[in-house]
Amino acid sequence: MFRSRRPGRPRRTGLRGSLAVLALLAPALLGAAPGGSGETISLAGNLPGERLDVTLTQVVDPASPASGTGPDRLVATRLRLENTGTAVYADSPAAAAHLLDATGRRFTGLDLPTTAGPGFPATVTLDPGTTAEGFVTFRLPAGAEPAAVQFALDGGLADDVGQWSLSPQ
Questions:
Q1: CA-CA-CA-CA torsion for 26, 30, 36, 37, nearest 10 degrees?
Q2: Is 126 helix (H, G, I), strand (E, B) or coil?
Q3: Which long-range contacts does 37-43 make (Cβ < 8 Å, 24+ apart)?
Q4: Four-CA torsion 119, 154, 53, 159, nearest 10 degrees
Q5: What do you get for the CA distance between the two ends of the chain, in Å?
Q6: Whole-angstrom Cα distance, residue 65 to residue 76?
């Protein structure tokens, strides 16, 4: 028996369709920059006057540790931070940065030196109008594929989250 959909009644997409829509909308909801790496995203913190322009300028995958080796893979991301607010920015860029893998696992940034380049100090302090640039490193288990980098002020806890896609466009 053939059944047609009644006009004006929405079509049900089921769980698979809902997940596909969510996957497409998630970057927009999180403030993702189109085009991925190299894009600047303006982010607000939770306190008045906290505002940074954050740019993902480089991804080194794999990154070599500055000393020692381990079974995990390191990915180093170079970020440029510009204080565009009216308040002094004092925070840890490593704690504010996260890397998502292709399965959705989230990895917090580390103050781990690599040969990719200089990292940020444990705490970065920026007066309004000043900038800082450095690497944040992530430790990924074998087989994990990086999919996106996220950054949020206030140690990664601010409501305003920037996201850069690492997937080929």
A1: -150
A2: strand
A3: 37/164, 37/166, 39/164, 40/80, 41/151, 41/162, 41/163, 41/164, 42/84, 43/151, 43/152, 43/153, 43/158, 43/160, 43/161, 43/162
A4: 140
A5: 43
A6: 10
The dihedral built from the CA positions of residue 79, 84, 85 and 87, taken in this order, carries a sign that is positive
Residue 96 φ then ψ, to 5°: -85, -10
pLDDT in tens, 60-82: 998 988 776 566 789 999 999 99
Whole-angstrom distance, CA of residue 41 vs CA of residue 130:
16
Looking at 10-24, 64-78, 96-110, which range is the least confident one? 10-24
Write the CB contacts of 94 (distance below 8 Å, at least 6 apart in sequence).
Answer: 108, 109, 110, 111, 119, 120, 122, 136, 137
**CB contact at 8 A, 124 and 157:** no
Residue 26 token pair: 């998630």
27 preceded by cis ω (within 30°)?
Answer: no
- The predicted model scores a pTM of 0.76
The letter for the amino acid at 165 is S
Structure tokens at 115: 């040969």
